[in-house]
UniProtKB/TrEMBL annotation:
<dbReference type="InterPro" id="IPR006311">
    <property type="entry name" value="TAT_signal"/>
</dbReference>
<dbReference type="GO" id="GO:0030313">
    <property type="term" value="C:cell envelope"/>
</dbReference>
<comment type="similarity">
    <text>Belongs to the bacterial solute-binding protein 2 family.</text>
</comment>
<dbReference type="InterPro" id="IPR025997">
    <property type="entry name" value="SBP_2_dom"/>
</dbReference>
<feature type="domain" description="Periplasmic binding protein">
    <location>
        <begin position="47"/>
        <end position="302"/>
    </location>
</feature>
<dbReference type="GO" id="GO:0030246">
    <property type="term" value="F:carbohydrate binding"/>
</dbReference>
<dbReference type="InterPro" id="IPR028082">
    <property type="entry name" value="Peripla_BP_I"/>
</dbReference>
<keyword id="KW-0732">Signal</keyword>
<protein>
    <submittedName>
        <fullName>Monosaccharide ABC transporter substrate-binding protein, CUT2 family</fullName>
    </submittedName>
</protein>
<dbReference type="Pfam" id="PF13407">
    <property type="entry name" value="Peripla_BP_4"/>
</dbReference>
Amino acid sequence: MSKQDQHTGVSRRDFIKLGAGAAFAVAGGGMSGLSFGAGQTTLACSFRSLTNPYYTAFNKGAQSFAKSVGLPYVPLTTEGSSEKGIADIRALLQKTGGNLVLNVDPNDSADARVIVETCSKAGAYVTTIWNKPKDFHPWDFNPNYVAHLSFDGVAYGEATATELFKAMGGKGGVVALGGIFSNVPAIERKAGLMAALKKFPDIQLLDFQVADWDSQKAFPIMQAWLTRFNAKVKGVWAANDDMALGAIEALRAEGLAGQLPVSGMDGTTPGLAAVKVGELVTTVDWDPYWLGGIGLSMGLQAKEKKVDVAALPRDRRESFCKATLVTKSNVQAVISRESAPGADWNNLYARVAGPVVYR
């Protein structure tokens, strides 16, 4: 066994294995293999990729909910393409005759408008996660646009940066990895980083680069930073775990993994493992398993008229949800919970923290 293989849940090899297995699962369980019975509602989630552990958990939550209600489920992946994401949803709407409940994390913020308008016209019910334009709201498309769920990216971007800066001793140079340039979560998390920098005047931002949420893109960026800045780099902030872990692999190649503090977000299984072994200072657990299933539950309850969404207060239609800042002090508790995930799919608003705040 190599030294790299000893780092549970952190190596790039683990990502590759996970991605291959997830891709196989989708190929074996996609639209072509499903029969759409007359009058039977189809459930679907659309999201970026199953090569990312965050979306693997998201998909598992959706599968769990679908099994609990005995309905067919279709996972759709955009693979970073807005065109593919929208085209796949349109194809499924046509195949189901609009008898569809969709939980979607749009590839780009602007995609949400097209997706919702198309679903509403077809009579389908849709919940959006994370991404949508600020001036676009569920109550503009009653009852088909059921809800929008997100988290306060500014607050948690600042919280993870604060933990990182403390681990750096409050001084030194930091490099930062951002998500897709036009994604709402990426924009908000960067704003949180910048807010934290104002509170730590002895921390210098050496460079900020976008790595599209992807460990494979973060790895060479981190390599280049180590060459360019060398010993000036005292910490690494990343807008998600996948990019953080790509940076850690670049640090590992230089014998620096666990020596330079790194922060992430998403609370993925590999990210939590990295926190446990001391290679990641902090992450944020959004509970993607819950998100994957609860968005479908909201949509199905609206479709079956168990919930009159038009009568709900607006903070139940556009909601910030509760998350957990994870450090070494509480990581084992989070790992234990995620090793046996569960959710009350009927308790739709237990995790609602308040209305979405637009800054």
